[in-house]
Amino acid sequence: MNIRDLEYIKSVSKHLHFGEAALACNVSQPALSSQIKKLETELGVTLFERDNRSVRVTDAGRDIIALADDALSVIGNIYSAAETARDPLSGEFRLGTIPTIAPYLFPNFVTQSRAALPSLKLQFREDITDRLNDSLLSGDLDAAILATPPESSKLDVIELYDEPFWVIFPEHHDLQSFKRVRTKDLPTDELLLLAEGHCFRDQAMDVCRLDSSNETYTVRATSLETLINMVAARQGVTLVPAMALNPRRISGSGVDTQKLNDKSAYRRIYLTYRKSFPRQALLQKMADVFCEGLPETVKRIRG
Amino acid sequence: MNIRDLEYIKSVSKHLHFGEAALACNVSQPALSSQIKKLETELGVTLFERDNRSVRVTDAGRDIIALADDALSVIGNIYSAAETARDPLSGEFRLGTIPTIAPYLFPNFVTQSRAALPSLKLQFREDITDRLNDSLLSGDLDAAILATPPESSKLDVIELYDEPFWVIFPEHHDLQSFKRVRTKDLPTDELLLLAEGHCFRDQAMDVCRLDSSNETYTVRATSLETLINMVAARQGVTLVPAMALNPRRISGSGVDTQKLNDKSAYRRIYLTYRKSFPRQALLQKMADVFCEGLPETVKRIRG
DNA sequence: AATAATGATAAGCATTACTTATGAATATAA
DNA sequence: TTATATTCATAAGTAATGCTTATCATTATT
Fold it and tell me: Where in A67-149 does DSSP place strands (E)?
C-alpha cells in the first residue's frame, strides 16, 4: 500500500469518475486505474464497482475509504508537525552552564532570549564542566556554556568572549598600593580557591603558576560569592572572572578589586554542542543573544 | 512520503540503531538509511541525531514518530477491515422481490439464510419489476428475484426455478368438472388480473393469449391474496403461480384449484444482479439457499 | 449508424527503492 | 600506539514500481 493510493481512492470516491479523479490527482487515468486495481488486489476487496459508464463505492469500500481519510488526516498532521518543527528557533532547548558563569550570564540572557527567541523553551542546568560534557555527549543537554574547549571530537564550539580575571582583596590590603596588579604580585599563600572540579579553580591556579602541591589553603568554596564574602571577612584574597564583579555588591562590602594586568589572565568562554546537533542555526542565534548582553568588562569575539 | 518510511522511522526509534532497525524491516541498512534521509529532507526536519556510534530521537522526531505510529495503526485497521470485508458472504445485501413472489418465498428464505449466511445483513424491498430493475442498475439494490429476464446487458441472472400456473375458481364452478384444465378452457371473460405493472398480469394474459384490448374486467388487484379472495366471493376466476397456493388457506375458503395443464403455463424465476457486482460468490450461495426451501409444486433448476 | 464517453489494457520510459561493496569515523582491545 | 570492530554514510548498479501515451471495448447519445 501507498499513501498516494489512499489519495487516489479518496479522489475516486469523491468524483465517482476515474478520469476526473485522476485529473484531481495530477496523474493520468490509466495510472490511477492501475494503482487502484493493484490496491484492490492487495486488500482482496473490490472498493469500487464500475462498468463502462458508472462508478459506485462498495460497502467494503465505504469503510476502507473512511479509514483512508483518517490515515491521510494523520499524515497531514505529520507534515504540519514538521512545518512547526522546521523552525530551528522553536522547541525545547536544554542548556548547561558552569557555576562561575550561570549567576552572571543567565539573568540577562533569559530576558533577551525571551525577546529574540520567543518560541524557544529553555531549560537550564548548572553543573561542573566534566558532568556537562558527559551530558552533552549522551544527549541529555543540547549545549553548554563552558570555559574550556571540549576534548571529545564529537563536540564543537562557538567562541563567545574572553573574560579577564580580577583580583579581589580586602580594603587596606597591601595590594591596594599597586597601580597595576600582576599575577606575580599576588600573595599566593593567601589565595582562596573554589573546590576541585570547578574549572575556574584550575584556571586561577594556572594563571598564578600554582599546582596542587602548592596548596596552602583548604577552603573549598563552590561559588564565587562565597569567595568574595571570605575576602570581605579578611580571610585572604581571590581571583574572579570579570562577569562576577557586580559593582553594586562590591561597593561598601569591604573589598576592593583590580583587573589583573597580565595578557594571559583571562579565560575564553565557549558555547559547546554536539557536532551532530541538528539545529545549528539556533546555536548561532543563541550565541548572538549571549553576546548582546555582555558587559564592557569582557571582550566579545563575535559581532 | 511512504508508508514504509513510517515503518522505518518507527523501527529506528525502537532500536536506536540503524542496522538492527533495518534487519527488523527486512531491508539492508543503506536502504533504510537513505529512505530516512530522504524523508527528513522532505519534511525539512531531522528526526534522528546520529553519529558513527549512537542514534538519538530529536524533539521533532518524537512528535512525528508518535504521529507515524497513529498513521500505521489506522493503516493496520484498513487491512483488518479488508480482511473482514473479504468474506463475500458477510456485509450488507439489498434484495428486491416482486409482490407475487415475496410473500411466499421470503418467510422460508429468511429462516434458511440466517443459518446459511449468518453474517449477512439482508435488507428486503418489494416492488414491481421495472422499478426493481432501475434500482439494480443504479446500485440501489444488489439483486432482485424476478420473473422476467433482464433487458439491460449490464444485468445477468442465475436461473432459480420454474413455477407452474394454477387456476383458482369458486367451488361448484364449471371448471370443477374438468379433470385437466388447459388455458383454452378458461373463461377469459371471468378472468381476474393484477394491476398493470405487475409482471404476473402480463404472464397470465400471455398464457391465455389475451392482450390489453381484450380486457373485460376493470379489477386492478395488487396482490394475489386479493384475487383469491375475490374468487372466493365468486367474482370470477384467476390464475396464480404455484407458490401462492397455501393449502391451509385454500381449504375451506370456498375456492378450488387445478394446475394448468399446458406445457407453457409456467414462469421462470431469476436471481438478477449487475454483472459488475463484486460478490458473485454470495449470489451463488444465495441462489442455493433459495432453492433449498422450494416446495414440490415448483421445478428447481439448480441443485 | 456515427459519435462521444469511459474505464481497461498495452508498451515503453522514468523514477524510486533496493542490493552489495566500500568508506569514514570512532570506540575497544591487544 | 596499532589493530580490530562497530556503525552510519556513500557509491554503483539493478530491480521494481509507477507513470505516460496510445489504443481498445463497451455503452450512451445524437
Answer: 91-97, 120-126, 143-146
Distance CA B192, CA B239 (A): 8
- Percentage of chain A beyond pLDDT 70 is 97
Q: Give the mean model confidence (pLDDT) for residues A170-197.
A: 89
Please state, in angstroms and rounded to a whole number, the distance separating the CA atoms of residues B100 and B166: 13
- pTM, two decimals, is 0.75
Q: Which nucleotides of D are covered by protein (CB under 7 A)?
A: 6-12, 17-22, 25-28
Structural domains in chain A?
3-86 (1.10.10.10), 91-161+268-297 (3.40.190.10), 163-259 (3.40.190.10)
CA distance A299 to B2: 52
Contacts of A54 (CB under 8 A, 6+ apart): A16, B139
pLDDT band at B215 (very low <50, low <70, confident <90, very high): low
In order, the DSSP letters of A153-220 are TTEEEEEEEEEEEEEEEETT-GGGG-SSB-GGGS-GGGEE-BPTT-HHHHHHHHHTT--GGG------
pLDDT recorded at residue A208: 87
Mutate which: A53, A276, A277, A279, vs B, most B CBs within 10 A: A276
What pLDDT score was predicted for residue A216?
61
**Would you call B240 helix, strand, or coil by DSSP?**
strand
Q: Is the pLDDT of residue A213 over 80?
A: no
- Given a cut of 70, whether residue B112 has pLDDT beyond it is yes
**Residue B69 CA distance to nucleotide D8 C1' (Å):** 24
